[in-house]
Protein 1
Amino acid sequence: MAALPPRSQIGLGLALCLAVASGPAAAHGMKFRNAQVESLSFAKLDGWKNDDQAAAFQTYMKSCGAILQGTRAVRAARPVYGGLYKACEKAAALAAAGTVDRAQGRKFFEDNFKPVRILPEVHTYGYYTGADGFYTGYYEAEVAGSRVKTKDYNIPFYGVPAKFAGKKSTVFSQYNRTEIEKGALAGKGLELCWVKNPVDVFFAQIQGSTRVKLDDGQLLRLNYIASNGKPYTPVGRLMIDEDLCTPEDMSMDKIREYMEANPKEGEALRLKNRSYVFFSETRLNPNDEPLGAQGIPLTPGRSLAVDPTIHVYGTPIWIDAKFPITSDMPKDNFRHLMFAQDTGSAIRGAARADIYFGHGEDIPHIAGRIKQFGKFVMLVPKGVVLVGSAPEPVEGIPLPRPRPKEIVAANGPAAPALPKPRP
């Protein structure tokens, strides 16, 4: 999960771009292109007062541990980072004064941030479709394994060569997935452990970490360390394209069911994804959560994987969506303050995020069902200006989009009413 694990199981990421603002706004703000921003108030956030802001504050403090190490040059170059740094200084002082309860936590966020809804533009023939933020879920996989190769345990988890150990940004790119699964690395001393099912390795690579329950009773913790740098192809999208599953029915469970029921076809599908992930053994205790790309332990239900080319790690993000938590139907309200603490190579876009759900027997099924749209509200540090661009409302037949008008999310005019999504 640290660095860039290739998560996003169904390939429904939104293609968006970001550019830092030029001109007057550049000194104290940032600019989203191809995304609309809408200033809100905390009173407009449904469920805001019902969330446990004390728990949210504790998760934010984990991010602050990393943010407060930032240099003055970094803070000056990235206005949002600089704003988060100032907020973290206040958070640290508040935490030092004693335990922060829900009311204090809520007041902290309200005093130091302003909510700004992010609405990506999705254009077809030049009109705005009104798409909201898009969410998926991920988790820490669990699998049985062995330190030594046996008749049953014969599928390896690979590490990287010793000269690359500890270099999480290193790309080990000599081989693609097909070559590796056919044995290109066999016998090179890179095997960390062995499992029974190649599908288990594949899913651990998607999630970025795994718990391996060894046959001697020990627990082995593996975490993403590098990839081969080959393009990541979502197998869920391939299944949809090949009419093996409908978009509505697509889930991680569907992918696993298909691969295990159809081993040869599943292998062929898997090999179309040339990307391959390597792991390293970590010294985490059984109760420890894996590290995210920010370099801090993830928090189930509070940590988000986001696009780091757009968002700064540690940014608070309010989610308001209906998810299939208790059943297959997306009927459960999910209204929580989350924090950008991780990333994934398929997590791209201003309003695209992957929710970390932790580990456990039911967790893979819950996380695998998440593929819903919902409100994506970024809590922007006060004093930072966020600028977006959006097309004029167009009704009737699609028309060429007029030149975008910049909308200032703070210290400026309110955003105009959004056009309704086209049926």
Protein 2
Amino acid sequence: MAVHDAGQAGASAWLKRNGVFVALAVLVVVMAIAAPQFATAQNLTNVLQQNAIIGVIACGMTFAIIIGGFDLSVGSTAALSSVVAALVITATGSIPLGLIAAIGAGLVVGMVNGGLIAFLRINPFVATLGTMTMIRGLVFVSTNATPVFGVPFGFTALGLGKTMGVPNLVIVLAFVAALLGFLLHQTRFGHHVYLVGGNARAAAVMGIRTARLRFWSYLIVAVCAAIAGILLVGQTASGQPQAAMGYELTAIAAVIVGGATLGGGKGRMLGTIAGVFLLGVVSNALNLLGVSPFWQPVATGLILVAAVGLDRVRDDAA
């Protein structure tokens, strides 16, 4: 009996850790049967490409959520960076300078968010909601809410092109996920992020500089949002003030669905990537089945609530 109970406990723990991968695999198999066009190379490539930008943002968001917060300003930051990149490129004719300016804009936002949350101890919801609103407003005012054109059309090779048959956006996502995954799982910094998210007071007693760690985590989130903004320019050869609206909620949902908790201390980069593509496959499935796109946010919300509810039930049972 003890062996049987231990086996059940082990299976339950495995399912809890890998449930998102099981759900994704089951959904892919079901869709391949229900809609044969789903399993075509073209459609699967589209799913990867369409969700890569959200994936980059979600990789950064993973740090904020594991450390016990989140960032509502990532969509606005992506739009800001796309507009800054387009403005600098059109003004100077230098793509590298535009990319540096876009990353710089993201760093400024990250420093503001990190300072408000880590050093002034403002609640992450209030701080990032405020910066989200202000940044979007400033972008609209500075551009009169109109796109910034003039970026060389060849720049779209970044957002729409492929390398050896693999979409460039997917390559960028893989690089960002691998780099941040290594930082999160294989370094002292990442280990401390988990400790602070799990119990900030205990981490402080251990000598971990919790405020500095939070500050750097929000810098990471903002830089990922800036990279996303650059990729958005690569899709349209323009800076779009309206870009990335709603991306913040989708990124948060992907991280939570991937196994993290809003309480902090849990989550992993691979789970985040699986969460991104689970939501992406659901969206693609609804399209292929002819369901109205207005139902897609409903499906995302239901999946998020189910993931959070299931995690809470399991924690209570434990």
Protein 3
Amino acid sequence: MKLYRFTINLEDIGKRLDRYLAENLPDYSRNYIQNLIKEGRVTINEKPAKANYRIKQGDLIAVEIPPARELELIPENIDIDIIYQDKDIAIINKPQGMVVHPAAGNYSGTLVNALLYHCDSLSGINGKIRPGIVHRLDKDTSGLLVIAKNDFAHNYLSHQLQERKITRIYHAIAEGVIGDDEGTIRAPIGRSLRDRKKMAVVTGGRSSITHYRVLERFAQHTYLELTLETGRTHQIRVHLKYLGHPLVGDPVYGRRKQVFNLRGQALHAYSLILTHPTTGERMSFIAPLPEYFENLLKTLRQREKNN
């Protein structure tokens, strides 16, 4: 069991308790912290606290983190869109809102739980919690993922990623109007110096390259196609924020005020091109835009007609 203690500084006065703890305990999600509060594992001045408590100067906050429980992966009959499958790989069209693999706060209902049910085998290179997972998509990013069904395929695909021989193309809708028809964002990405839970463009970060092309412009938004040359955590989301055009609906890097009632960022992994581990065949896959994305485009196009 771990015990953390915090004494409030002037700049933190007035913050919600759960937000403050999420900022100061970056290894734990806000949802996990809220559960700790509900379980009575967070106290303020030795008294049980509530998540919406506004902290005051001099408050002494204590957080008790229980021992990590052993994750037991259970196959679950969750409907997933498997657009291709053979003895080596599977190509999945992940829906928005699905977590890729189990972690604190998400022990079931993940893509891995579904894969264990639907696939006869998965690679074990990434360990018990992430069988078959070669690369990931954020929970609220929809679209294509390649899954390795054996260790040989996993190593082969991982090498392709490292050598930048897998092409990953995304469609996205960004805030504001991007003037250039196409361009490249070259900006290093690392942990944010202000918020360790976020990524940011930082000096000394890892080399990160995103190519973009404008597909359609609206009065206040831009529909984009983006190609990853590198694959850093939250790369597209961070790069577009850096460009001054964050993704519509992005709860972390976007505008605070959301006007389209989206469940997350308007980002879809649209196309995946790779070389098959066994046959050597160059294979191309496309996942059509999901309903939430199509509806947003319809809304923006209708606004253009009405103006």
Protein 4
Amino acid sequence: MQYEKVHSFLIQKLEAGLPSYLTYHDAGHTKNVIEATEHLAIAENISGDDLVLLKTAALFHDAGYMQVYKGHEDISWNMSKKYLPDFEYTSDQIETVCQLILATRWPSKPKNHLEMILCDADMYYLGTEHYSFYADKLYQELKKNGTVKTKVDWLLHQVGFLSSHHYFTQTALREREVQKQKVFQQLKLELESSFTASGKIKPAELIQDILLILTGVLFAGCALKAFLVPNHFFDGGITGISLLVHELYNFNLAIVIILLNLPFILVSFFTVSRRFALWTFISIVLLGICLTLLPEVALTSDKLLISMFGGVFLGIGIGLIMRAGAALDGIEVMALYTLKRTSFTISEIILGINVLIFIVAAFKFGIDSALYSILTYFSATRCIDYVVEGIQAFTGVTIISGKSELIKYKLVNDLGRGITVYKGERGFLPGKFEISADCDIIFTVISRLELRKLKNLVYNEDPHAFVFANTIKEASGGVIKRRHHH
């Protein structure tokens, strides 16, 4: 084996042929990996031909970057088979080099001692005091090829990578693990600080929230004064109770709505957040002002149009205010408060309250008025769902694949999603019922817009993966992505 000659030959090709945007995976990286490989091999009592084969694999392991970025290991494998025969490597030696190169593919799963050494050498910089220097070079490279876009993306990428990485050899564990964990903890602190800083309300977001609230109040006010109130129709929730009180006792609707919502605003101050309580109070007071200023004009006398469009306008108004991180009806707070003291879900609690409202309306104003009011409530609810969720409605996706490790890494680090893994078995096919194998069943939650991106990501890695999705109607517990953090 003429290692020195092939080393000189390939380093020259790397220096001349690697793209300029490869600020990390350059010829210098290859030299560093070769040096780390030799250090680890000697410390792990590897010598002779095995040491030469290790250094040769380190030399070729990133050569494929001269042609492609993704899947470069396969190109490196082909290049070693092409060039090494010219430098007196036997077919068995070339095969060993090829297997060593493929072992560096992430996530690393070395099968023998030599592969462990090369995998550790490739990531030896993780546990050094020079981590930031090399990490910045990698960040510039990934930013140029579009893998990461911002510093926060990069922090997420690093934390995700370091959390799943581990050294295999005793030498690497002894020399690099402690420093690597220090780097990991520092990056987590930086990531937490970034999220804290990003959580502050920016002026543009504040203006957007104010506009959403003003528009929502106007829609809700028009729904009440132009459709529901002139025609003695009702809605659900505190708004429905306020309409009932207004019709039964002729109290001022604006004052009733504000007074009935005040206790729930106070509860939300302690159970949700100060910001939510403040914005909700402002929204309800603005609605009261709007109801006072707007004239009571019946736009139509058609009961079906009243119930449908009254609900639509009211639903749009409530939905816009919810998008701003507030509420226009205290029933949600009431349901949340009751939920902690009963076994009922929020949906069941709200349904029960509204059933009582519509029963009272049926007895006092007739069954027709109650039934049309139910239609109004249904229209408003559908519009709220559309305005608040829209195309951001969540979808649960389950993935079963023979390449689950690689797919898990891609989902977390490329798609930026959390995952849950169940242990299961796959197989049990007709005619082959006795054949099965253990597998990881991956579950994640995404928005509708991300479904196509997720499928492309999965099928690029495993065209035979089994993927199915279902819409999530209601979720409790865990971490759910929201537009506003109350």
